[in-house]
Write a structure and sequence with these properties.
The structure holds 2 protein chains of 2 kinds.
Chain A (H helix, E strand, L loop, with lengths): L5 E6 L5 H7 L3 H9 L1 E4 L8 H5 L6 E7 L2 E3 H13 E7 L1 H5 L11 H11 L27 E6 L9 E3 L6 H12 L68 H4 L17 H12 L5 H9 L4 H5 L18
Chain B lengths: L2 E5 L10 E6 L5 E7 L6 H4 L8 H4 L8 H15 L6 H26 L1 H5 L11 H8 L1 H22 L8 E2 L2 E2 L8 H27 L2 H8 L8 E6 L11 E5 L5 E5 L8 E4 L8 E4 L16 E2 L2 H7 L6 H14 L10 H20 L19 E8 L2 E9 L5 E7 L1 H4 L1 H15 L7 H12 L5 H5 L1
Parallel strand pairs in B: 6-11
Antiparallel strand pairs in B: 1-2, 2-3, 4-5, 6-7, 7-8, 9-10, 12-13, 13-14
Helix pairs in contact in B: 4-7, 4-12, 6-7, 7-8, 8-12, 10-12, 11-12, 14-15
The chains are: A alpha/beta, B alpha+beta.
Chain lengths: 324, 461
């Protein structure tokens, strides 16, 4: 019997939702275990770093890496897994675009550390000590990896073969990617699983979306009620569907909430936030600068909303491509 | 030079961790460090964001327990905007939260910590996992646990958008009503969830309680800690997951403190270590006195066993029977044996299933009035719920435009941080003799923290 293909799964800086998307393969997870040899998957199996290091270069057939790169140690692990693997998939939005973790790029590392470890009201830290970044010594404890200057998406650290979008991705999409590789149906390098069109094309409310939307103002979700059957946009509620890749089964829309862009942009869009800005601008029905300003001022925190999932990959964050 | 034993990475838990054990010259264990190497900084990068986005933003702290963060966050928004949710909204939120605790506890029992006690200790390192559990208990059980988790998570998809990512929470309510025609399906899921919960307790009885090896391990001092316990309770001091007051009992079981969400700052404090990104919470009223047990130490525990210890019962009949039985078998309250967390977790699974059944027949569940729109200016809000792994606190302060100025997040596993470190140290001291280790010994050390079902993504956020 030929040897089963080897698979590894690893979690960098993230929430673990991508790991749940693997567990949620449900019975297909058992099928995966029958068809492949899972050699490294810390969340579910007792595999150690030394087991991974003992494997030959390129010995793993497929590695799924989720999470962004926030610690130097994660960059090291990504490089190690790259060497050991024939194919690497960026699994989920943090690995794909930087994700929610990437919102950290709006602040410096010292600011981020100081808030949590010195300034929040419950912390008692008279010496103002901070974790990470120092050398090991016998008194203080083991060495702790420091934070990288900026949060990075996976392809800003290593070469990535394919991408699974979504925060987290639907299990069906994870399955599609894994079976495609195991069955030798390899897409072209750089392929992003998911739809080739925006979310609007598969949205259950598409029929109620006008050709041209003209708005005199935007409403915040906690201040207003909206029609559950109709497109959010003509109702003045910002939905990021027009600039976001489809493939999520409209899961937020089905809960009567607008899209927040977790599947990221289509290939044709260089920068997700810029794409969002462009369609929002196209809806504003005003000519005078004062009125335009009044309307746009009603959008709270546009940077945090438009770049919620993609700051490291954005123009603001230096764009795509290797960072180190 | 000090000899070190390093477990890297620790496994079958959510997030990152390493253990470093330092040995003295005679091979005895001097110290043990439970290190969490990850950090994201939600308390900083959520500043400047819009308050109404917090339930979908802060839940990305944890993809394993997003629902708990979603609930704590939306409760903080209720408080922030001083708006009372409608009765239907409260029922919908409690249903999704309870359903989530049910399936999340099962994840631990079958996939993460449970394999330690379900798969025998003679088995090789790679046997203690979901596949090993299925090998031991049979494919049928594997199919059943997958099926019931899928259906319960499906219920949450119906109510909240996705079990991977609930989005329905808004201050004063939820975004979507539960249609009356869905009630039958919800009742069926709750009924089958209850049947499977009882089955799990039977498996626990046969595979664990009747296992001499497990019972002996449970009684070891290595797996015991005399600490305070904290959990949320209802007006009758019974366990509550969604709403209530926080109750703390001392190591002898007497009530130590009880407080509402808004007062948490008077009772809890946290400390920083240079070698880990996890902060350690302790009781402010007792103070930090190092990794020590007993009444004089501010260490406390949260999560399933702590909730049962800190309460006076469970509000549903079958779970109450099991609650009484557990304390009876274990010799009274409080129970300090860490491995009993596994049993307590399954009793909560039973409670969750019964509670889902109660909500499923509640008339208010399908009431179309699901939102009250806030009318007050926002300032400050605190939201608390019980996450599967323990008490979860979200605290927001905003400007008048409801833009976040400051946040404080105390996340379940942080409450257990000190106890986890001490549990690892005690297990290492008990099992490492003359500096010798094996896979089995390392597993026994990992059992010391795994019983808590720790989530390091939460603990570091």
């Amino acid at each position: 019997m030929p040897e089963k293909p080897k698979i590894a799964l690893y979690w960098c800086s993230g929430c673990g939702g991508c790991e749940e998307s693997v567990i949620d393969l449900s019975e297909d997870l058992l099928e995966l275990q029958r068809r492949a040899d899972i050699v490294f998957w810390p969340v579910a199996l007792d595999s150690r770093l030394k087991d991974l290091e003992a494997l030959g270069n390129g010995e793993i057939d497929l590695t799924l890496i989720n999470g962004a790169i926030r610690l130097h140690e994660q960059a090291h692990m990504a490089r190690l897994l790259r060497r050991k693997s024939k194919l690497v998939v960026a699994h989920g939005t943090c690995a794909h675009l930087g994700g929610i973790v990437g919102l950290g790029n709006f602040h410096s590392v010292p600011e981020i550390l100081a808030r949590s470890f010195r300034e929040v009201p419950t912390v008692k830290n008279p010496g103002g000590i901070l974790p990470g970044g120092f050398k090991e010594d016998s008194v203080r404890g083991p060495k702790l990896s420091g934070l990288t200057d900026k949060v990075m998406a996976l392809d800003q650290v290593i070469d990535v073969d394919y991408y699974i979008p979504g925060c987290p991705p639907p299990p069906e999409l994870v399955g599609e990617a894994v079976w495609a590789v195991l069955e030798g149906r390899l897409p072209e390098k750089g392929f992003v699983f998911g739809d080739r069109k925006t979310l609007c094309h598969t949205c259950p409310r598409l029929d109620s979306k006008p050709e041209q939307i003209s708005l005199k103002g935007f409403k915040r979700v906690h201040e207003t009620k909206w029609d559950m059957e109709k497109c959010f946009l003509p109702q003045g509620v910002i939905c990021l569907g027009p600039a976001t890749r489809g493939g999520c089964d409209s899961r937020c829309i089905q809960a009567n909430m607008p899209c927040r862009g977790c599947f990221g942009p289509l290939e044709t869009m260089e920068d997700h936030g810029a794409g969002i800005l462009s369609f929002i601008a196209s809806m504003i029905d005003a000519e005078h600068e004062d009125e335009i300003r009044r309307i746009t001022d009603a959008i709270p925190d546009p940077g945090g909303l438009f770049y919620r999932y993609s700051a490291p990959h954005s123009i603001l964050g230096g764009g795509k491509g290797p960072r180190t | 030079m000090t000899r070190r034993i390093i477990i890297d990475p620790i496994t079958r838990l959510e997030g990152h961790g390493k253990i470093e054990i330092r040995l003295g010259s005679g091979g005895q264990v001097d110290r043990a460090f439970f290190q969490v190497p990850d950090f994201r900084g939600f308390e900083k990068f959520c500043e400047g964001r819009a308050a109404e986005e917090m339930p979908t933003l802060t839940q990305k702290i944890c993809g394993v327990c997003p629902t708990a963060h979603h609930i704590a966050s939306v409760k903080a928004l209720d408080d922030l905007f001083d708006v009372e949710p409608t009765e239907a909204a409260k029922k919908i939120r409690e249903l999704m939260h309870t359903a989530f605790i049910y399936e999340d506890h099962l994840l631990h029992f079958f996939y993460l910590g449970g394999p330690d006690i379900l798969v025998g200790s003679d088995d090789k390192r790679f046997g203690k996992n979901i596949f090993g559990v299925i090998g031991k208990l049979g494919e049928r059980i594997g199919e059943e646990v997958i099926e019931i988790r899928k259906r319960v998570r499906g219920l949450n998809a119906l109510v909240s958008g996705s079990p991977l990512y609930p989005v329905c929470g808004l201050p004063g309510g939820v975004s979507k009503p539960v249609p009356e025609e869905e009630r039958i399906g919800i009742k069926e899921i709750a009924r089958d969830a209850l049947a499977f919960a009882r089955r799990c307790l039977k498996i626990f009885e046969e595979e664990v309680l009747e296992s001499r090896e497990y019972v002996d391990l449970t009684h070891l001092d290595a797996y015991s800690l005399e600490t305070y316990y904290m959990g949320m309770v209802d007006g009758n001091n019974r366990v509550s997951f969604y709403d209530g007051e926080i109750r703390i009992v001392d190591p002898e079981g007497g009530e130590f403190e009880k407080f509402g969400a808004i007062d948490y700052l008077h009772h809890l404090e946290e400390r920083v270590d240079t070698w880990s990104y996890m902060k350690t919470l302790y009781l402010k009223g007792v103070g930090w006195h190092g990794l020590r047990e007993g009444k004089e130490s501010g260490l406390y525990r949260v999560g399933p066993l702590a909730r049962l210890n800190a309460s006076e019962g469970l509000a549903t009949p079958l779970a109450q029977q099991e609650y009484e039985r557990m304390f009876d078998v274990c010799g009274g309250k409080p129970v300090h044996n860490t491995l009993v967390y596994h049993w307590a977790r399954l009793i909560e699974v039973l409670y969750a299933a019964e509670r889902m059944g109660e909500i499923a027949v509640d008339d208010q569940l399908t009431d179309p009035e699901i939102r009250n729109i806030p009318v007050q200016s926002p300032r400050k809000g605190v939201g608390i719920c019980e996450a599967p792994r323990g008490t979860l606190i979200h605290h927001y302060e905003t400007d008048e435009a409801a833009i976040l100025k400051r946040l404080n997040l105390l996340v379940a596993t942080q409450n257990n941080a000190g106890a986890i470190s001490l549990s690892v140290l005690k297990a290492a001291r008990a099992f490492i003799k003359e500096g010798r280790v094996s896979d089995l010994i390392l597993n026994r050390i990992e059992m010391g923290y795994r019983a808590y079902d720790p989530c390091m993504a939460c603990a570091t956020h």
